[in-house]
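Input record, target 12 of the design panel.
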C-alpha cells in the first residue's frame, strides 16, 4: 500500500497515520523524495483503505500488490517525465535520443561528436569516463579530468551529459559535471550505490543487469526511488543468453512489459543490446516499434579506432541515418 501524504503534513498527523498503519498490522516505511512524501506500508491483512484515506494529512491511498511499489504503475496516474533542465525533458511517449562514444577519449573526439549531435538536433550526449572493463588491463577511462573537459565543451554546445558512475565515492566527484548518472548493467544490483543515488538531485538512467529479470530491475529502481530520487529511467540493454552470434540478446519484450508495470520511461540501448554495428540500426527501429521512450547508442567519427566497444560503434553517417529513420518511424508508430 502506498499512502501519499500532503506536502505540509504536520508531524502530529504523520505520527497518527503511521500509528494507524501499524495498528492494522502493516510495516510502515516513510519515504521522502525531492517531489513528495509517502508511507509505504507492507502487509497482507485485508482492511478498508478508507480508514487510512480519511486521516488528516493523507492525500491518497493505493493498494499496490507488486513487490516494487513506488515505481509501479498501480498508483501513479500520470507517467513520469524526467527533466534534465534547460528545456530538456525525457517524456513518456516521446523519443529522446542520447548518443556518444562508449568512452570519452580526447578533446578532439568530444568536439566532433558534439558538433554531430548539434547538427542532428540531439540534446543528450553519452560517454563513460570511468569504464567497467572485463579486463583490468583494458582502457579504464579518462576519469574526472576528462569529465571536466567534456562538461565545459558540452555546456558551450548546449548539450546535456549522461555518464556512468561505478562507485559510491564517484557520485560526489561527478556531481557538478553530469546531468544524469548512468548505472551500468554490472552495477544494477549494487544496492549501496543505488541507495546513495537516491540522495542526489540528478536523474538516474538505470540499466538492466546482464542476467537480471524485469522484477529485479524494478526492485533496483525502487531502491533509488525509496531513498529519495524519483527522477529515474529504465534501460533495456540486452541480456546474456545461450546465443553466441551477437554480444547480447536485446530483450524487446521488456519494453511493453516494463511500460505496463511501471510509470517510468523506458530507454533502449541497441548498441550493447546486440553489439554488432550493422545491426544497431534495425534494433533501434525495433525498439521504437516496441514503444520505447528513447534510445541510447554509441557513435564515433572513426568507429574502428574507438578504445572500447569499437565493434558496435556507428560512424556519423550511420548515426544520422538512425536518427532520421527512428524519428520518422516514431511519427508512424505513435
Ligand atoms: C556503456 O554504456 O558503455 C556500458 C558499459 O553499458 P552496460 O552497463 O549496459 O554494459
Ligand atoms: Mn560501451
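The sequence produced for target 12 reads:
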Amino acid at each position: 500500500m502506498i499512502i501519499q501524504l500532503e506536502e505540509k503534513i504536520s508531524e502530529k498527523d504523520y505520527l497518527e497515520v503511521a500509528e494507524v498503519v501499524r495498528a492494522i498490522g502493516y510495516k510502515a516505511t516513510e519515504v521522502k523524495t525531492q517531489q513528495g512524501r509517502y508511507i509505504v506500508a507492507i502487509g497482507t491483512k485485508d482492511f478498508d483503505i478508507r480508514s487510512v484515506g480519511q486521516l488528516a494529512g493523507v492525500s491518497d491511498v493505493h493498494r499496490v500488490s507488486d513487490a516494487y511499489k513506488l515505481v509501479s504503475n498501480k498508483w501513479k496516474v500520470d507517467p513520469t517525465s524526467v527533466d534534465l533542465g534547460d528545456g530538456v525533458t525525457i517524456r513518456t511517449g516521446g523519443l529522446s535520443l542520447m548518443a556518444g562514444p562508449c568512452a570519452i577519449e580526447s578533446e578532439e573526439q568530444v568536439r566532433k561528436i558534439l558538433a554531430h549531435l548539434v547538427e542532428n538536433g540531439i540534446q543528450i550526449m553519452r560517454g563513460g569516463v570511468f569504464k567497467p572493463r572485463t579486463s583490468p588491463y583494458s582502457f579504464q577511462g579518462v576519469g574526472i579530468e576528462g569529465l571536466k573537459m567534456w562538461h565545459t565543451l558540452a555546456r558551450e554546445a548546449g548539450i546535456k551529459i549522461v555518464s556512468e558512475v561505478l562507485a559510491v565515492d564517484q557520485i560526489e566527484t561527478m556531481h557538478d559535471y553530469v546531468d544524469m548518472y548512468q548505472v551500468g548493467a554490472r552495477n544494477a544490483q549494487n544496492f549501496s550505490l543505488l541507495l546513495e543515488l537516491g540522495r542526489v538531485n540528478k536523474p538516474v538512467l538505470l540499466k538492466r543487469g546482464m542476467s537480471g529479470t524485469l522484477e529485479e530491475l524494478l526492485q533496483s529502481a525502487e531502491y533509488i526511488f525509496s531513498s529519495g530520487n524519483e527522477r529515474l529511467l529504465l534501460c533495456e540493454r540486452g541480456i546474456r543468453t545461450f546465443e553466441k552470434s551477437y554480444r547480447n540478446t536485446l530483450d524487446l519484450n521488456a519494453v511493453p512489459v516494463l511500460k505496463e508495470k511501471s510509470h517510468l520511461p523506458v530507454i533502449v540501448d541497441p548498441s550493447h543490446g546486440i553489439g554488432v554495428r550493422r545491426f544497431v540500426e534495425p534494433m533501434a527501429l525495433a525498439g521504437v516499434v516496441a514503444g520505447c521512450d528513447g534510445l541510447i547508442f554509441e557513435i564515433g567519427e572513426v568507429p574502428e579506432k574507438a578504445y572500447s566497444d569499437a565493434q558496435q560503434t556507428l560512424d556519423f553517417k550511420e548515426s544520422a541515418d538512425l536518427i532520421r529513420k527512428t524519428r520518422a518511424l516514431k511519427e508512424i508508430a505513435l
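The pocket of phosphoenolpyruvate (ligand 1) is lined by residues 102, 128, 132, 184-186, 207, 237, 272 (CB under 6 Å).
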